[in-house]
Amino acid sequence: MKQFNLKTPNLVEGKQQLKRQEILDYFNRTFSLDDELYKTLKDEKAFYMRADQLRHPLIFYYGHTSCFYVNKLVLAGLIPAPINPAIESMFAIGVDEMSWDDLNDKNYNWPSVDEVTNYRNTVKSTIIKLINELPLTLPINWESAFWPIIMGIEHQNIHIETSSVLIRQLPVEMLQNASFDAVYNTDEQPVQNELITVEGAEMQLGKPHGHHSYGWDLEYGTYNENVKEFKASKYLVSNAEFLEFVEDGGYQNEQWWTEEGWSWKTYKKSEYPLFWHKNGHSYKLRLMTMLVPMKWSFPAEINYLEAKAFCNWKSAKTGKKLRLPTEAEWYRLVEYSDVKDATEWDSAPGNINLEHYTSPCPVDKFSFGDFYDVVGNVWQWTESPITGYPGFKVHPLYDDFSTPTFDGKHNIIKGGSWISTGNEATLHARYAFRRHFYQHAGFRYIESEFEPKIRIDSYEIDEEVVISCEENYGEDYLGFQKYPLQLAELLKDQIENPADKKFLDLNCSTGRLAFEASKMFKEVTAIDTSARFIRPAIELQNNGLLRYVIKDEGDLQLYKDVLLEDIKLNNNTSPLHFLQDDAMKLKKKFSDYDVILAFNLLEELQNPTAFLSTIHERLNDGGTLILGSTYQWQESVSHKDNWVGGVKKNGEPVKSIEGISDILSSHFTIVSQPFDLQYATRKSSRNFEVNSSEISIWRKK
Amino acid sequence: MKQFNLKTPNLVEGKQQLKRQEILDYFNRTFSLDDELYKTLKDEKAFYMRADQLRHPLIFYYGHTSCFYVNKLVLAGLIPAPINPAIESMFAIGVDEMSWDDLNDKNYNWPSVDEVTNYRNTVKSTIIKLINELPLTLPINWESAFWPIIMGIEHQNIHIETSSVLIRQLPVEMLQNASFDAVYNTDEQPVQNELITVEGAEMQLGKPHGHHSYGWDLEYGTYNENVKEFKASKYLVSNAEFLEFVEDGGYQNEQWWTEEGWSWKTYKKSEYPLFWHKNGHSYKLRLMTMLVPMKWSFPAEINYLEAKAFCNWKSAKTGKKLRLPTEAEWYRLVEYSDVKDATEWDSAPGNINLEHYTSPCPVDKFSFGDFYDVVGNVWQWTESPITGYPGFKVHPLYDDFSTPTFDGKHNIIKGGSWISTGNEATLHARYAFRRHFYQHAGFRYIESEFEPKIRIDSYEIDEEVVISCEENYGEDYLGFQKYPLQLAELLKDQIENPADKKFLDLNCSTGRLAFEASKMFKEVTAIDTSARFIRPAIELQNNGLLRYVIKDEGDLQLYKDVLLEDIKLNNNTSPLHFLQDDAMKLKKKFSDYDVILAFNLLEELQNPTAFLSTIHERLNDGGTLILGSTYQWQESVSHKDNWVGGVKKNGEPVKSIEGISDILSSHFTIVSQPFDLQYATRKSSRNFEVNSSEISIWRKK
After folding, report:
1. Where are the domains of chain B?
2. Which stretches make up the Sulfatase-modifying factor enzyme-like domain (chains A, B) (predicted)?
3. Can you identify the CATH homologous superfamily of domain A2-174?
């Protein structure tokens, strides 16, 4: 298979005039490898068989990768119109596992293999023409016209591997080796695994923008983790080692399994790994296109749930705390083992990129110093659910590549397999699957005293909350500065020597003003009545990262990442406490403040009049009370008797500011004339709300 | 009573240095007259008796007029604080007839008469001081500090009359004449009524701003009516003339009564007018403080419902079309009779302003040329429900003087009674009461072939509709021009020779753009799917006037009058048709247009895709289609399959503008790059919505 060497190209360095040819070669080799893969299907019938009852037949994947090029290039404006709308519609969606009713055969009327082959060829010619004709300047980056072309090639590389997994689930009699004949076909004496110590280190994960090779959006960003010392198994777990678990009744004993794992095991009635075929008392091993006598020296290929159960069982057996590595621990292993990245190889150091075998091979075949198979052979499951690194941005041409998997249910696999090509074979590669899913994936266990730090960093999607997030941390709209920054400036203007003062924000919402205030005041308490709203503030404070999704138009959405460092808040701030509490029933300890802010709070209170009548009790003498309100009184919130104004009293209209003055005058003097603070709230890309909040500033007598 | 001559002062002309004294005199005389009125109550008990079961006892009115001064002066900022908040709260509201549960005695704990008298004296001193000290410059107008003082005096004059009506309903044994001893106490031979012709004339009603005497807000504005010739009864209807109706079974015969009238009659079990007291087979007449033998020559004092029943009965008896006059017909009678206004009298030409009697007098006592009692003696009911004249504006210091009566249920009384003083005695006076209510009021009937033109001109209060009214006809907010005017400019820029072209506005809402278009195009059709929204447009087109109420803050509201002439639309416009129709199911006749506008329509349609696919059928070749949309697709409006964009199709995001282009491209070419039209929508004084509607312009191939 050496002819298909599929190293992803350097998009930054090199001679511009050679780069076009290099990309063209990469495209042609990928396309040809894809063609070759489908030649393992002996006849057309195999194209229409379900390898997995919840997945489309291979004919879908045969068409899908070509469709993808077209759809992305249309989206990018590089080709003017669809090539074959009927095919492109049929082959666009449905890559993933579905629910049973999506797959009703009646809903599909697949075209013939010839039709799809013709379509593939048309697309191929179109892309070749495009590669030859598009203006090309280095570096090629996210914004370059060549990016969606590379995206299509890498997408095809992914599907070469995932299709190979599907082929591995078709009946062997329908398959042939074709070009995939470099199968490692002998078995060797299984090795005894052992644990080797890896010292801890401060790890920085994430691919820098401007890196020389193509990356999917979720590879970028920066994430730091202090990896503690651990011990890792020298080898991937072999079929022989895994057999101990099977033979010890591992699949019959619920105690080793997570709840999710046991639920899966029960549903699938699994008793051993999927690619093991039991024949009486002996096992055979299913490879991609053939069934061979069990290779005990090969890595066990399992899903995460099985790997996790194995670790739990083995922990109990050995008295050691064994588990899978996190993503950061895997990178530590890479660093420890001094693994070169794919773009620096002359020849692959492991069983990867089809450079050695068209199958797995024994776990002791490729050494990287102390360890074996740090990359290659089979993917390695980790404990880490996938999520974007802080600073993650969605690529606009493929906005659902990553984010649907940021749900805490998709775990990362690392290291690549024998058939991982292109981007898949790079160290930055980050792929993730549902924990019950099968890929060419196995595992290495580690021993560690530390519970893995599980980051989900899911996206806030509560509609009202994300509107507040954008209002606090997003862009300025319609020429209005964000209201928390206007308030921060107000505090700067109005409060002398804030560094000596305690500040209370009584309606902190998603918290921006409180963060800003913590740059100025001695101490900041930020209270909101709603846990929904305060949660993002706390998340930003604790994790340095806040993610939310805002509405674009219709169903379309935009993904936003806010980093604490973006708002210059990682250093030099005072104690800042976010707390959920009811401003009407504040605990006694919330007293002795020098400055209290109640911005747009009155209209949210059940009794604003009572609030104003007692707020002086929280404030030190000479302290400052800052009120802001849009006076949007609602009977659903407060009884009309409790409104401070906006009603007739004794038949005369009472403006809210007059009502406020009446109530406050016994304990406060007004500092200056009330004035309006106008700010914009984004509801969608084309819809905004502008409020004018009247600010009044009061000094306690 | 001559000493109480209460002519409302000239606020425009005269010597400035004398004006202060003139106002002070007017205040003192009014206050003294009010004092005198309450001296008709023999003892304190009378203050606490209910003259009318649905009205407060007189103690309330005794305190109310003084409270009113204070509350208005506080509101105007002329006195810093309430004088006696407890009293001012208790006496502020409750002038009108109430429902029974508002009047539960337990809810009231009235102060003693002495306490209220003391309060009145304190207020009186305060006002005198204010009149002496306030800066005074002529003219005194709406904005002058003296206006609320005159307002308070005129308010007190009104209550002198309305309290006199309540006193008239107390038991006579509790009353004495006191200063009100100029009762007309003899009866005279009743005169035979007759009808006299009054020629028609073009009448202009409404008091000009800048008029020399005080006016309540509803007196201002301009209203034109072409009054047709009519005949009017020479005299007000006397008790003798009304007796014929009573004796003919008028109160037993439903056919003479309006539905409202019969309902009232049945509820009250009335058999003759309220102030007639039947004693065996003879009647006595109740005057303000005494019961006297029936004065058959006096005007019949009845409510509107009784007067109307009388006219219906008399029409049937005489075969003539008899009814009450409209307000405009009454003014025509004033003009015909050359009646001088109160401010021009030396002596009152009728039984008015307490200048002659402290009771009514025979209907043939005061002649005004051919007619008697054109003003004075008793008020005269009219057919006209009260409403503001076009151009009406609420006075900010008394925003509920008028508008609560603009409901079609309050009819105007004109001409004043023997006890009408101050503003009440002027020709511009406009008072109105519920049709079943009693004042010192009678009537004159007229014969006319013409159905009276009844204007209600009520205020649009539908929250969504008034927001659109303000968006179309109101102010500009946040620096954004109103969207219909932005669209009108767009039409000017984009459409050549509009005077030759037919224009279709498919989402006209409350119609401003259609009006603007009618200045340019040969013909305009304006369609909206909602009758609620199109109604104000039609009202403006037909009546030249549109009224609506917008939200200020809380419950507070602002009243808006829009005149067709304000938007320069009374001349030179083309045919303009407003129609309610569904843009998805337009009748065939809506075709052959040269320009079609669909602004913010797509998002309101059940199937925007179908709409775009067929809209070319309505347009002439070469015609222009202008689309605007905020793309706020909602599943509650249209099924997602019908959205033109804002969704993923074949897995790729499709922006709405791309979807529009796809659909329109078979019949249209795009004229220029789409662009955004931003506009603001006012929701309340402090809350706005800003939308950004994407405009695209298409030429039909």
Report:
1. 2-174, 195-447, 472-700
2. 194-446
3. dinb family like domain (1.20.120.450)
